[in-house]
Design brief:
The protein is mainly alpha-helical. The chain has 2 domains: 76 residues, no CATH class; 160 residues, no CATH class. It contains 9 helices and 2 strands, in the order H-H-H-H-H-H-H-H-E-E-H. One of its GO terms (cellular component) is outer dynein arm.
Length: 268
């Protein structure tokens, strides 16, 4: 069916439109009067509300004016607009090659240049226990300590197993466990460490339990591999230094148990 054509004269259509507008204006003014009375406004406010009742409110445009010139840094050297801006998080990472001098340097390299857990573990090997002892002499934050524990727990067995295969089973895994113990001991000398351990919360407890369980097993294995050697207290041990951390003496069960107490875990 074809649309019906409006054959009404233009004058009649205009009169209907005017009548509809007058009816709308009358209702709007009447509503404004009632609203002004209910609000108990003064005369000037009442007059303004009535005079502007039929006007439509002006709203801000949804989109900004795109006619403004773009800043110069939005363009490349060829004069064409860059499609993507490189943010700080997209900056290329650089593998650390030097021991950090401060905790701020450590945290920057730890988070920016060591994205993967293996990278973080190699960074700990680069720093060594003595380097970490100096960096965190004043204090270590609970967040950094939590991340460090997660990395040690996740990576030390894998790195130890790989070294064991490469060296043909020459005790590399036990030396890796000794390195982890040395790192935990070095970090525990930081100022207010007992408070930092409390700030770790219960979320870090499963990681600590798995880490110390593996270290205790490694210590027992090292003791079983050399039954003629009597265990000495941690204070009496005098390990040799090599590569920034002690590798000659494997960790002992007594040493691991004492360190476990420092990190807030009950004796197993």
């Amino acid at each position: 069916m074809s649309n019906l054509t409006d054959h009404r004269p233009a004058k009649v259509s205009k009169e209907l439109a005017n009548a509809a507008y007058d009816d709308f204006k009358r209702k709007a003014i009447d509503e404004a009067k009632k609203r002004a009375v209910s609000q108990r406004v003064d005369y000037d406010t009442f007059k303004n509300m009535v005079l502007t009742a039929h006007l439509k409110p002006i709203t801000a445009p949804k989109q900004l004016n795109n006619d403004r010139p773009l800043p110069c840094w939005n363009f490349g050297v060829d004069g064409k607009m860059l499609k993507e801006q490189i943010s700080q998080s997209q900056l290329p990472s650089t593998t650390p090659t030097e021991v950090p001098a401060t905790s701020g340097d450590f945290t920057r390299d730890w988070r920016r240049n060591c994205p993967a857990p293996d990278d973080k573990y190699r960074y700990l090997k680069l720093c060594g226990p003595e380097g970490l002892r100096g960096v965190f002499r004043v204090e270590i934050s609970a967040e950094v300590l939590r991340e460090m524990l997660v990395v040690l727990e996740a990576c030390w067995l894998g790195h130890g197993g790989a070294a064991e295969e490469a060296e043909g089973g020459s005790g590399a895994a036990l030396r890796e466990a000794a390195f982890v113990v040395q790192v935990l001991e070095a970090v525990s000398t930081a100022g207010r460490f007992s408070l930092t351990v409390k700030l770790l919360g219960t979320s870090a407890k499963p990681t600590l339990e798995r880490l110390f369980s593996g270290l205790q097993s490694a210590a027992l294995a090292a003791e079983a591999a050399d039954p003629d050697k009597k265990e000495q207290p941690a204070e009496a041990e005098a390990p040799q230094e090599e590569g920034g951390f002690r590798v000659e003496n494997p960790c002992s069960p007594t040493r691991v148990a004492a360190l476990q107490a420092v990190y807030g875990l009950p004796p197993s």
